[in-house]
Each structure stands twice: as C-alpha cells, then as structure tokens.
TrEMBL record:
<keyword id="KW-0805">Transcription regulation</keyword>
<keyword id="KW-0238">DNA-binding</keyword>
<dbReference type="InterPro" id="IPR036271">
    <property type="entry name" value="Tet_transcr_reg_TetR-rel_C_sf"/>
</dbReference>
<dbReference type="Pfam" id="PF00440">
    <property type="entry name" value="TetR_N"/>
</dbReference>
<dbReference type="InterPro" id="IPR049445">
    <property type="entry name" value="TetR_SbtR-like_C"/>
</dbReference>
<feature type="domain" description="HTH tetR-type">
    <location>
        <begin position="37"/>
        <end position="96"/>
    </location>
</feature>
<protein>
    <submittedName>
        <fullName>TetR/AcrR family transcriptional regulator</fullName>
    </submittedName>
</protein>
<dbReference type="InterPro" id="IPR050109">
    <property type="entry name" value="HTH-type_TetR-like_transc_reg"/>
</dbReference>
<dbReference type="InterPro" id="IPR009057">
    <property type="entry name" value="Homeodomain-like_sf"/>
</dbReference>
<dbReference type="Pfam" id="PF21597">
    <property type="entry name" value="TetR_C_43"/>
</dbReference>
<dbReference type="InterPro" id="IPR001647">
    <property type="entry name" value="HTH_TetR"/>
</dbReference>
<feature type="region of interest" description="Disordered">
    <location>
        <begin position="1"/>
        <end position="39"/>
    </location>
</feature>
<keyword id="KW-0804">Transcription</keyword>
<feature type="DNA-binding region" description="H-T-H motif">
    <location>
        <begin position="59"/>
        <end position="78"/>
    </location>
</feature>
Length: 211
C-alpha cells in the first residue's frame, strides 16, 4: 500500500534502523595491495638471507615458509628463481650504478674501470651462484636477470669508453667481454674460498691486459 512503512524503518521516527554489518566500530579492511606489498617484501628479505646462507639454489619452498606464505604466493610474485634473484640484487645494482657515476670523472679512467669491475666481483661474491647466473643471463634475453645485466652493461660501457678515449685501454676491448671476465673472476673466487686474494690478483692481471 502507498502509506505502508518499510519493514526496516523505526516506527517512532521513520528513520532507517542501524544494521549490524554497518557498525562504525569495525576497522576498515586492509587493502589487498598492502597485503601483496607486505608479502613481496617478506619474500625478498627471506630470499636475501637464504641466498647469502645457502647460495642462490636455496629452496624456494623454504623461503616461502620462512616468509609465512605458501609457495603459490611466492610464484605469483616471482614466476621463477631468476625473477626472485633479480629482486634481491636490486640494492646491489643501485650501489654499483651509483659507483659508476662517481668514477665517471676519475683522473685515471683505466683504474676507475677496473675498480668498478672489482665492485661487481665483491657484490657477486655475496651470494654463491650469482656470478654463474649473471653470466648465463648475458646470453639469455628471456631471463629476469637481464634487468640487472643491461644497466650494468650501460654503466660499464661509459667507463670503458672514457678509458679508451684517454688512450689507457686498447680499442678492441668490449664491455661484454669485460663483464664476462668479471663474472668469471667472481666464480673463480667463489670456488677458492681458501684464497681470499685471488680476485684481486686476477683483477690486476686484467688491468695489465687492458693497456
């Protein structure tokens, strides 16, 4: 009927009665994006610890468990191991790129180049297996680690070009060869933990060969 009062109205005031599911006491739901960001950060943090302790072939299932998520969640964020390694290496990548910019105006361009290559060896040595993966990524454009390799290649090419223009480095040297050589040095040092001076000796040989 036209004059009927709706069933959810208070008959004394004709105002809507508050519903239980609209209570202002309930906290707002956590945004799904915030949950995803939290899981992402936990996975990267646990991967960083696991890779440092066990190498880059550490169990992904164990990383997910330590992060408090299921393996399916890990794969939603990182579809494969290289993608997770890329996320872990981003901090080191930023440091290496910053260092390349600092060395861009160095008085001795050849030494600046070798110093920067030595920094790559140091960072790669923090995670057993990373040097081998970076070597492979340089030949595999589908690898997520290409996101690390390409910025390093560009930064190194600038340092190499300046060294060649100064006449202190041979013109037939390529940045691709240097990065492969650097990863090989890191891999050799990784395989010889009882010889902590090996990487420095090999880098000094590299310096002589560049001139």
């Amino acid at each position: 009927m036209a004059g009927a009062i709706p069933m959810d109205m208070d008959t004394s005031t004709a105002q809507p009665t508050a519903r239980a599911d609209a209570s202002p006491e309930q906290p707002p739901a956590r945004p799904r994006g915030a949950d995803a960001r939290r899981n992402h950060d936990r996975l990267v943090g646990e991967a960083r610890r696991s890779f440092a302790e066990h190498g880059t072939d550490a169990s992904l299932e164990d990383i997910a468990r330590r992060a408090g998520v299921g393996i399916g969640t890990l794969y939603r964020h990182f579809p494969n191991r290289d993608a997770l390694m890329n996320a872990v290496f981003q901090d080191a990548l930023g440091s290496l790129l910053d260092r390349s910019r600092e060395l861009a105006a160095a008085e001795a361009p050849c030494r600046a180049l070798v110093e920067w290559l030595g920094a790559i060896v140091t960072h790669a040595g923090e995670y057993r297996g990373l040097a081998h993966s970076l070597m492979s990524a340089s030949r595999d454009e589908s690898s997520a680690l290409v996101q690390c390799h390409l910025p390093l290649r560009e930064a190194g090419a600038g340092l190499l070009r300046r060294a060649q223009e100064s006449g202190s480095v041979r013109g037939d040297v390529s940045i691709d060869d240097l990065l492969q050589l650097t990863n090989a040095i890191a891999l050799a040092a990784e395989q010889s933990p009882d010889d902590p001076e090996l990487a420095d000796r090999l880098l000094r040989l590299t310096l002589r060969g560049l001139k």
